[in-house]
Amino acid sequence: NFQLYPFTPKWPSNVVTYRIVSYTSDLPRYKVDQLVEQALGKWSEVSALTFKKVLIGDADIRIGFARGAHGDFYPFDGPGGILAHAFEPGIGIGGDAHFDNDEQWSDGSQLGVNFLFAATHELGHSLGLGHSSDPNAVMYPTYDASNSGDINLSEDDIKGIQALY
Ligand code: TQI
Ligand code: CA
Ligand code: ZN
Ligand code: ZN
Q1: What is the pLDDT of residues 3-50, one digit of tens each?
Q2: What are φ and ψ of residue 96, in 5° steps?
Q3: Exposure class string for 123-154: b at 16+ Cβ within 10 A, else e
Q4: ipTM above 0.90?
């Protein structure tokens, strides 16, 4: 079942801001914007959360693509291996979601890591969800290449987010 982080960090307001700070050359920018919006929509649909996009300045959740060392303690590792990571809610880097630009990112129409699935999973972390033991959950700890097509939160993901917001 779903897990929360120790001390259950969560955003103090149900209105959470986000900003997309960098992009990948694998997908057009509008596509990345669209898929991030869809991923956040999955979480807001089933909870009290609403998301506000900001284009400049600070945001609770900063989303970006980077390769190798990129300014935190968790350098990316080239193609394969770690695909992405995100930080639990908190100040500064808290909530931020990073995607490894050495992966091939896909909107589902080409080969590659499904960005909508990855964004839904990583933004789950950004909102305070840990991993789930339920293989049907988006918050299950391993990415599976069959995670394409329709992406739906499982009952377990929904219970997890509703325990927080
Ligand atoms: N990145 C791990 C993850 O997002 C990083 C991580 C978080 C981790 N907590 C951890 C690793 C605890 C070990 C122990 O879970 S990952 C996806 C993606 C990864 C990425 O690249 O291994 C998924 C794992 F990108 F698709 F969302 C699963 Cl679903
Ligand atoms: Ca990698
Ligand atoms: Zn990072
Ligand atoms: Zn994870």
Answers
A1: 988 878 999 999 999 999 999 999 999 999 999 999 999 999 999 999
A2: -70, 145
A3: bbbbbbbbbbebeebbbbeeeeeebbeebebb
A4: yes
DSSP 17: E
Determine the atom of ligand 1 nearest the C-alpha atom of 113. Answer: 26
Residues, CB-to-ion distance under 5 Å, ligand 2: 77, 81-82, 100
Distance between CA atoms of 136 and 28, rounded to whole angstroms? Answer: 29
Answer yes or no: is the C-beta of 123 below 6 A from any ligand 1 atom.
Answer: no
Exactly one of 45, 88, 103, 122 is catalytic; name it.
122
| Cα R_g (the chain), whole angstroms | 15
| Alpha helices in the chain, H assignment, sequence order | 29-45, 115-127, 155-164
β pairing state of 84-86 and 97-100: antiparallel
Helix (H) or strand (E) holding 65: strand 61-66
**What gap in Å lies between CA 112 and CA 88, rounded to an integer?**
26
Residue 7 tokens, joined: 């001390």
Beta strand 105-106 pairing with 113-114: parallel
